[in-house]
Amino acid sequence: MTPVNLNKARKAKARAEAERQAAANRAAFGRSKAQKARDAEAEARRRALLDGAKLERG
Predict the structure, then answer these.
(1) Angle at CA 41, nearest 5°, toward 38 and 42?
(2) Phi/psi of residue 55, each to 5°?
């Protein structure tokens, strides 16, 4: 059995975690202005639809 360098294992795990976080950030924030505007418009339409369907309580 070969010995394991725990420093290397720890750093490799940290690099993998950083890459996972970077991929999530690219998906969340790496959008063009047009894509952000389209998403905001869709969210506004969704909210308006939900607000219009609310029941009034007397």
Answers:
(1) 85
(2) -90, 140
DSSP string, 1-58: -----HHHHHHHHHHHHHHHHHHHHHHHH---HHHHHHHHHHHHHHHHHHHHTPPP--
pLDDT given for residue 38 in this prediction: 95
The closest alpha carbon to 40, from 58, 32, 6, belongs to: 32
What's the whole-model pTM score? 0.49
Mean pLDDT of 5-34: 93
Which structure tokens are listed for 56? 């009034």
